[in-house]
Amino acid sequence: MRTGHDLELVHVTKRYGDAVAVNDVSHLFRGGSYVCLLGPSGCGKSSTLRMIAGHEGVSAGSIVLHGAEVTHLPPARRGTAMMFQSYALFPHLSVRDNVAFSLRMKGVDKPARHRRAGELLELVDMARHADRLPSQLSGGQQQRVALARALVTDPQVLLLDEPLSALDPFLRVRMRAELKRLQRELGIGFIHVTHGQDEALALADEIVLMNDARIEQAGPAREIFNAPRTEFVARFMGGHNVIALPQGRFALRADDVRLAPEGAEAVVRAVEYQGGHVALTARMAGEQELLALIPEAAFFADPKHPGDAVRLAWDEGRLHRLHA
User: Fold this and answer.
1) Three-class SS of the chain
2) Where are the CATH 3.40.50.300 domain residues in the chain?
3) Which part of the chain is the ABC transporter domain (predicted)?
């Protein structure tokens, strides 16, 4: 396992004409960690990744990898590698030659580049398909080949642009486990762009949540979910209610809200069965809506329906104060 190298963004800004895509972003990505850049469409996460890769120029600020500034270096000289959302495999080349392509461009002789490609294909469990063309592979297999091709140059940091978005839900979950295994085995930093909260929570050592061209909050996945700093973070991560009280605004996890004999009066607005629990949305006085995640067995022991009057309760200690 290699020791990862830190990557730092220092006051990085990206402008497209008058539009600001990334606004004065500074962040230290710890070497050897799996980081997910998370956020809604248009928040700046993909522009940030492309600047790190060198596929987009930086309007202001600098990018530093392992103590060396790489801001103006071409992609091939940065020590990073990027796996694109589309995989971008060459249709006329075999799996082996796709993986070895960048080594060929560097003048590495055929036996050496094929040997290295074989090692990477073993790593992603695709060695038996080395002679196939991309058109003969499934989507998940093409993704593994693209991953091997990105890793063949031995990067210090691997950049992944929504790598799971083209896969079906079942395969997406399988590939999450594969990506995490590979990252741990290689010991290098992975920076993974996604708009999926579940994906980020499952994969990330650190989540960097972006909103409106800035970092809204960054930290360990569990901290981002359990201790959102702002209303945006609480609502975007899901599973939270935002409650306005005289003392300020608070986040309350939906699984901390329960049906009880005594509590706040509310009227059921919607009921949705979600497997292990039931999502119940109810409206309280003042038009405040609360989401409660009720364990399946508890709900069906006394089921509720839209229009029913209920009482909702929670422990005051579970309220988490939000900043502006």
Assistant:
1) CCCCCCEEEEEEEEEECCEEEEEEEEEEECCCCEEEEECCCCCCHHHHHHHHHCCCCCCEEEEEECCEECCCCCHHHCCEEEECCCCCCCCCCCHHHHHHHHHHHCCCCHHHHHHHHHHHHHHCCCHHHCCCCHHHCCHHHHHHHHHHHHHCCCCCEEEEECCCCCCCHHHHHHHHHHHHHHHHHHCCEEEEEECCHHHHHHHCCEEEEEECCEEEEEECHHHHHHCCCCHHHHHHHCCEEEEEECCEEEEEEHHHCEEEEEEEEEEEEEEEECCCEEEEEEEEHHHCEEEEEEEHHHHHHCCCCCCCEEEEECCHHHCEECCC
2) 7-226
3) 7-237
